[in-house]
Amino acid sequence: MKNMEIKKMQTKILPEVENIILVASGKGGVGKSTVAVNLAVAFMREGYATGILDADLYGPSVPMALGLEDARPRVWKENGKDLMEPVEKFGIKVMSLGFLMQKQDAVIWRGPLASKALTQLIENTRWGKLDYLVIDLPPGTGDISITLSQKFPGARAIIVVTPQQMAIADGRKAAHMFVANGVDIPVAGIVENMAWFVPEKHPDEKYFLFGRGGGEQLANEYGVPLLSQLPLVADVCELSDQGKNIFNSGNAILIKAFEELAQKIDQVKEVPA
Ligand SMILES: Nc1ncnc2c1ncn2[C@@H]1O[C@H](COP(=O)(O)OP(=O)(O)OP(=O)(O)O)[C@@H](O)[C@H]1O
């Protein structure tokens, strides 16, 4: 399919969004939401109008990572439809099903219902004009991720993995999801999170706690770039617990890594034909 046709299909659903980046992982806990949130902030800092959609219906962690647990979007009716305005934080527009649920609610929808709820969330949110919409997918390769990938044929994906071999096997499934099931989403590259640990008092030492080379191996297998290797830093966990982002940390390595990640993704805007 030609670039223009792909763009046109995407345009129908979100006409005012220029670029969609799907952030995926083969399994939970690898740092997918952390990467999605901080990538969105990095795009905003590059001067782009940016939004983030938390599509992880079963464990929406974006509101917490942004300190927005109690936020509620403005909702109004138009032509019988409930429309919503995203919540703003750090200059980015944020939408999550978490905003519409009580904290103790557990989402027990099965696939088709969950996909329908998400579709409504996407279509009824008034994002306004955006250069980038970052979508934090649920972990794994379930219905929601596949439905969403089919909805946005003009999107690009990044896959977050940790360096160990087991994680690579999961990352491979995520990468495969974007080329199978009638989905044809280009994988922009791999992000290896928790690649190594650097003790604060010994910044020259690197400890490869979870093995090494996994991100590179997956990137080579799929012929895509290894976009970034992010170290394991205690700050990350503490910051997200406090609703802060990497750019509040003063951690020069992480700040540079996210700036470069946003710039690399931005350099290759065109969808390959
Ligand atoms: N580079 C890092 N260094 C230290 N802690 C990290 C790093 N990346 C993520 N974390 C922490 O690991 C935990 C899991 O991260 P996160 O919620 O982003 O993972 P996830 O892949 O989105 O998981 P899930 O899909 O299950 O929600 C969080 O507490 C987060 O703060």
From TrEMBL:
Gene3D superfamilies for this protein: P-loop containing nucleotide triphosphate hydrolases
Pfam families membership: ParA
Annotated signal sequence range: none
Keyword Transcription regulation among UniProt keywords: no
Keyword Zinc-finger in annotation: no
Record keywords: ATP-binding, Hydrolase, Iron, Iron-sulfur, Metal-binding, Nucleotide-binding
Domain of life of the source: Bacteria
SUPFAM superfamilies linked: P-loop containing nucleoside triphosphate hydrolases (SSF52540)
HAMAP family to which the protein is assigned, alphabetical: Mrp_NBP35 (MF_02040)
Quaternary structure and interacting proteins, as annotated: Homodimer.
Family indicated by similarity: Belongs to the Mrp/NBP35 ATP-binding proteins family.
Designated name of the protein: Iron-sulfur cluster carrier protein
